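Trying the structure run again after the queue cleared.
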Amino acid sequence: MPLVNVMVNARAYTIACDDGEEEHLKTLAGHVDEKVKELLGTVGQVGDQRLLLMAALLIADENHELVSRLETQTREAGELAHLHADANERLSKSEAIAADALESATKKLEDIAAGLAHA
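Done. Tokens:
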């Protein structure tokens, strides 16, 4: 299991990760460091633990918002798929009715043409 050195709030941390996850872990640590820097600008240096907790809460809030949006979009997509299926069913029924009407009109025209041919 590889060890990765990351920097958060100008402090080095060594963290283990799965093979191939090193760059991803560095990216995540960079995101946490950005949040900590944002907090430093608003609340100042209040201690590593408190800054990391606050950063974690901000990231959790962002995640919660994104999950909520995804759930809403998934629900809306399901509703749209249902509406699409209903529209396709109505279209199929309308096409069948139109085909029946066309067949009936064709039959009537053939009967008229046959009647005129015998006249």
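The longest strand covers residues 3-8. Worth checking whether this holds up in the mutant runs.
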